[in-house]
TrEMBL record:
NCBIfam families: asp_carb_tr, PRK00856.1. SUPFAM superfamilies: Aspartate/ornithine carbamoyltransferase (SSF53671). Catalyzes the condensation of carbamoyl phosphate and aspartate to form carbamoyl aspartate and inorganic phosphate, the committed step in the de novo pyrimidine nucleotide biosynthesis pathway. The gene is pyrB. It comes from the Bacteria. This is Aspartate carbamoyltransferase. It comes from Pseudonocardia broussonetiae. The keyword Transmembrane does not apply.
Length: 317
């Protein structure tokens, strides 16, 4: 594996291999007073974030450090980007400094693919791997992988760790969500039956071509779901009125306590965060026994360790 740009680049075997590696790394760290593995000693991982992030940026940094890599964070505000330097020049500068992997988040869809192209060219030297940590409204592959890892853990604890055949609901602002796109592709690749649940105004053009079903009725779908993933309403990407008000959105598509009671007892509730409590999800549900939100955060570190391992340590694809 040279880069990780999209879950579309992963078939079921490759995705399962990454998830299995994450499980092995998690087990390797159990009981260690000092959570350090020598796997990536001498490697340099740079996180380059042009958008704000807590979970993704910090988990990549922790993942690198737990595997003994040298990790460096570059923010747009604290770099030459604020002086007008282009993404290309910034990336190639980091490559020239010896970066083995650049983890990038950027507001422009397709930016990670452009970076990979530059890195693979002669001017880029061809030695730096790119990980897409979210590009515009396009994709967020490591989020989909950690969500799949969380679902596998949950189902395994109840007798079967397989995602195949499970019905997974993804609810909310699909239009602006790179998380939704990556999850639909990955979960379908792993054999899940995926249903998108959203108001028509928050569905993208061409969604009927996605490998999933679409519904506008949350109440009708909840009783048949094996898991539900609530999405963040991305107000910062909205340049118009996509729904009348926050209250009306909550009434139609928020996961209240009453709605959560419609879910089967075994069904976990996921959310990529940050959560808008009271609108997308009730606080009692977000903090309740069915919530897998913190499990997602914990799995994020192990999954990103697995990604770095496969990219930088030459793990079999």
């Amino acid at each position: 594996m040279r880069h990780l740009l999209s879950v579309a680049d992963l078939d079921a075997a490759a995705a399962t291999g990454l998830l299995d590696t994450a499980d092995r790394l998690k087990q390797a760290l159990l009981g260690r007073e000092v959570r350090k593995l020598p796997t990536l000693r001498g490697r340099t991982v740079i996180t380059m974030f042009y958008e704000n992030s807590t979970r993704t940026r910090v988990s990549f940094e922790i993942a690198g450090k737990w595997m003994s890599a040298d990790t460096v964070n570059v923010s747009a505000s604290g770099s030459s980007v604020s002086k007008g330097e282009s993404l290309r020049d910034t990336a190639l500068t980091l490559s020239a400094m010896g970066a083995d992997c650049v983890v990038v988040r950027h507001p422009a869809s397709g930016s990670a693919h452009r970076l990979a192209g530059w890195m693979d060219s002669e001017i880029g030297g061809g030695h730096t791997s790119i990980v897409n940590a979210g590009d515009g409204t396009h994709e967020h592959p490591t989020q989909a992988l950690l969500d799949a890892a969380t679902l596998r853990d949950h189902f395994r604890a109840r007798g079967s760790g397989t995602i195949a055949g499970r019905r997974i609901g993804i609810v909310g602002d699909v239009l602006h969500s790179r998380v939704a796109r990556s999850n639909v592709l990955l979960l379908a690749t792993l054999g899940a039956d995926v249903v998108l649940i959203a108001p028509p105004t928050l569905l993208p053009v061409g969604v009927e071509q996605w490998p999933c079903r679409v519904s506008s009725s949350l109440d009708a779908e909840l009783p048949a779901l094996d898991a539900v993933m609530m999405l963040r309403v991305q107000a910062e990407r909205m340049h118009g009125a996509f729904f009348p008000s926050a209250r009306e959105y909550a009434v139609g598509y928020g996961l209240s306590e009453a709605r959560a009671a419609l879910l089967p007892e075994h069904a976990p509730v996921l959310h990529p965060g940050p959560m808008v409590r009271g609108m997308e999800i009730a606080p009692a549900v977000a903090d309740g026994p069915s919530s897998a939100v913190l499990a997602q955060v914990a799995n994020g570190v192990h999954v990103r360790m697995a990604v770095l391992y496969h990219l930088l340590a030459g793990a079999p694809e």
